[in-house]
What does this fold into?
Amino acid sequence: MKSLFLCLMLCAVIFSVPAVAQQQKGDVELQFQGYYFRTVGSDLEFGSGNLAGKIGPYLTDWLQVGVGPTLSITTMTTQTFNPTTFEVEKSSETTTTFGSTMFIVASFLTRGAKAVPYVGAQYFKQDFSDSDDKGSVGVNAGVKFYFSKKTAFDVSGNYLFTLNEGQDGGMLYFAVGLSFLL
It folds into this structure.
């Protein structure tokens, strides 16, 4: 409850401070972004967090391309019933992987804007050490809320589907981050 209150207070401060989005052709944006998800209610518990750093220039006032490294931390916990002791035993494994992302974003920048919505496309490879993984591609949409001339709070929704043969489904995640115009 306390963290929800702090999050609401942060949003209130961000929206109340007057600011104007100032991205222009030639600006370079540095962004830090993260997300976390976890499964619940089954014998297999799976939690994963991802931290990404992104950097990219604005080719025009509204079009940006960029790349960045990612760090994924995943914990998988399984439960098994031991018939000898009549107890449920848990075992966990945590892995860390390094990957990358590439993206292109089109912003809907208007004069004097405080909030800048955007849509984009991205490629994501979660693990460089897995040579069989071809990565994922997808789309995203979000909004950057500028709370100073060159600093924004970023919220986005992302959908990715795998490029690997024989795998179905996709990944839907929501990310938050901070962006800085250099």
Q: What stands out?
A: Residues 11-17 have pLDDT under 50 and may be disordered. The longest strand covers residues 87-107. The CA atoms of residues 32 and 53 lie 5 Å apart.
